[in-house]
């Protein structure tokens, strides 16, 4: 089966060469037969890569240690879920998953893009073939996941203990669906540049793919944040790690692309801007792939440290980013700007949104790459951490977030900002009330924290204002208002949900940043610590044997003010025997939207142990907000207007009397 998987990968590369050349040549020569090759070849390539991936999964599930990749990253005692997810918990397997998802998106275009013009469809699939062929060649030449060991070892070396978590089964696939999903937008952009034709119909076709990739990337980033939060034991939800930034940059650029595509579809404006954003968004994804796999970064996220692999990926990066930007520069003078609009309009609001998002992306890019550039030029190692990003990224976000509720209330082409402000007075009053309540009644609240809470409420209730106005709540008869509400387009609901979720995330970020408390104490069994109105009593350490690890579990009783036990919180110091590596397993108790976070430190000879206890108010809103944002994106994706495709002109039916005999 392993040899079949390797052979299927070679065949998929051969088909990628066909996919990247014949349809493109057919589009240039207007040969329908060559253009028709694109669909079947793309689907066949996906099936071959799926077969190859299934072969690698099978090797992991049966613990076939004759495969070097399995030997290096698995163990016979590892739980079945982690054997399965461990398939992509390494460089070679994760690259195979990357290419599988790339081919999957190409197959979706081949299956559901039949309403596309034949030349555009052929060009899109050809560009996908270029990307797939490049990465398949990279896998076959430098990262073969099917390399054999002879003789086969009896036992494996086990997977990195940090990766032995359910997060590995969710985070990388979601992240790759977002990363790689933007390749379709890139392919559409390059195909349109090759054709030299870009119009509102193009934006109609590309927007669903952008939306789907954005939804998946949002989920992937959120899952990665929560995974690091509970697994690493340091209590933080975002560290501005360079590889975290590498996933955040395409999200920022993709958000700008999504809003730009809306303007292009509705008003046939921002054509050049939308094409450039489609190129830059996938370029950020490729940059993230390079940073993770080139060895230029030392990070818990980094998979590989082989310079040869880094040079190969760098060559891919230069070819696709440089080639697409060169094609853009060649074609841009021939592209029309599209429709005109007043600065105070919905288009103007979306342009403002894009300017802030792209500037924020550039800020994160500079902070991420600056240490690498300095090290390459001078050999000095420096780090750019949270203070830089907080001082540069934060001020860019504040005016953008304040302006978000205005966008949906402004008319296309020319809007009335004063009228929009009047409609938002209720949301403003609620936000002002939240500021005053926070500042006056919450201990430790300061002015900036109170304003941050108000900004979150402004986002949430400002997003609901659009729904209230369009359904006529408070003005029309309740039955009529309900009918209008249920009849609103799903994209309207999706926009409101996404902005509401953003407000929830902002509220969680502000609350945990401003009001978090931390206690570092030495506790003996029976001792109690007061935390946020609760009592935490240390019950003692209990040894426990896992399937491939041993651990000391620290058990804590959580008591209310009356002394009644609410729950048991369990934190642990775990040791994986095969890897000879310790990990810290945090104990987390969720109380409403807040969490009590307990992490064990070193033990003393007298039975005492160092304990770090955090109280994190409203922290779950950070991730619940992203879930609401994903639901909003999915709701917009279900809008009928995104599923019917571009409008086509129907031919007039010829009456039977006019039909010639």
Span of the ends, CA to CA = 64 Å
- The radius of gyration is 27 Å
Order of the strands making up the biggest sheet: 2-3-4-5-6
The class by helix and strand makeup works out as alpha+beta
Show unreliable segments.
644-661
The pLDDT mean sits at 89
- Summed up, the helix count is 21
Number of strands: 9
Helix content: 55-70%
Shape assignment: globular
The proportion of strand residues reads 5-15%
Describe the structure.
This protein has 661 residues and is an alpha+beta fold. The strands form 2 sheets. A 5-stranded antiparallel sheet has the order 2-3-4-5-6, with no helix packed on it. A 4-stranded antiparallel sheet has the order 1-9-8-7. The chain starts with a helix and ends in an 18-residue tail after the last helix. The model is unreliable at 644-661 (pLDDT under 50). α6 (91-112) packs antiparallel against α7 (118-142), α17 packs across α18 and α19 (490-515) runs antiparallel to α20. The protein is globular and about 85 Å long. The chain is 62% helix and 11% strand. The chain has 4 domains: 1-164, Up-down Bundle (Four Helix Bundle (Hemerythrin (Met), subunit A)); 166-401, no CATH class; 424-515 and 622-631, no CATH class; 517-616.
